[in-house]
Amino acid sequence: MRVLIIGGGGREHAIAAKVAQSSRVKEIFCAPGNAGINKYANCVDIGVMEFQKLAEFAEKKQIDLTIVGPDDPLVAGIVDIFEAKNLKVFGPRKKAAILEGSKAFSKDIMKKYNIPTAAYETFDSPEEAVAYLSECAYPIVLKADGLALGKGVLICNTYEEAKAGVRTIMLDKQFGSAGDKLVIEEFMRGREVSVLAFCDGTDIAVMTSAQDHKRAKDGDQGLNTGGMGTFSPSPFYTEEVHAFCLEQLYKPTMKAMQAEGRDFTGILFFGLMLTEKGPKVLEYNARFGDPETQVVLPRMKNDIIDVMEACIEGRLKEITLEFEDNAAVCVILASAGYPEHYEKGYLINGLDRIKTEDGCYAFHAGTKQTEEGIVTNGGRVLGITATGSNLKEARKKAYEAVSLIDYKNKYMRNDIGKAIDEA
């Protein structure tokens, strides 16, 4: 098979590494890819939103399967365009990807079908939002309705903070048109868990659990980011929790989307909060999480091509997902200043010292190949992942591997998975 992967971040690097393990694959392309993905794939200079060019490339190269990584092209309908040309593609169609594309839509679905989530209200008017906030209990959560690179969520501790947050999202348009509509949500307390699942429109196959660290600084301080590191599995996601989630959250979501005429095929990401009153849905994503993918896929035993084809062909029931009885930790190496202002173009040293045979991986997120070597080219630069027999060992290995990499303005959190170490 010839496979095309769309995207150019750490998630797509992890997908490419997994696809490369398949005995059924002879050639991989990635558009646009990055300096690490080119180890497995031929990188093609086509942007993720250039749908016609991507489809023409897939036809010309006789691509057997296209895998869409990021949210933007999915929400904008890339799958529909590929399907119209009879090209096999893995990901949800536009009318299903709205589950991530609009937080207001996803919250309304949860309310309509009694899927446990936080209480909320939706606003088109900043004045009405501010009036509502004057009567709220704090802390409170503000969410830009649309896609905002995982950053469009503000947790506000006071009315003044919340009022400023409305201004930031709806008037200053910090997240662009994603902030045209605002969701105001009750603040839930508990453990966060990320759970990814393969879906074929009817059935769902749930992967192993993970936990992301969203805030930029140690101790969960600082601004929200796309994710500063992950570990898998979460010790808090027990068999009992899984059984509840399967019957009360996962299956009902699939059935709800079917009932709405929006059958979901692809990857459905459940952001969960394990509250005192039981697990609740924080958010949905319509694709692999980043950086959750970097700890989940290295632990998966299945041939990913077999699973994806089963999803597309509506026979996911035939697949039993299997994962290694181990653990993985991913530490994101970023550029100082991320998620706000940061500089690019610094030479990265030490990548050749990360060995996959040692259970360590350097997944490239924001890198670029130059004549001088590989340089930084984004806010999140690398995801250094390590596997171990347990979380403590995986964490130790990950931070040892991190110390082998050097570049100017290197920044990271030092406490990824630390709370588990100490538990």
Automatic annotation (TrEMBL):
It comes from the Bacteria. GO terms for molecular function: ATP binding; metal ion binding; phosphoribosylamine-glycine ligase activity. Pathway: Purine metabolism; IMP biosynthesis via de novo pathway; N(1)-(5-phospho-D-ribosyl)glycinamide from 5-phospho-alpha-D-ribose 1-diphosphate: step 2/2. The keyword Nucleotide-binding applies. It catalyses: 5-phospho-beta-D-ribosylamine + glycine + ATP = N(1)-(5-phospho-beta-D-ribosyl)glycinamide + ADP + phosphate + H(+). Keywords: ATP-binding, Ligase, Manganese, Metal-binding, Nucleotide-binding, Purine biosynthesis. Belongs to the GARS family. This is Phosphoribosylamine--glycine ligase. It comes from Anaerocolumna cellulosilytica. The gene is purD.
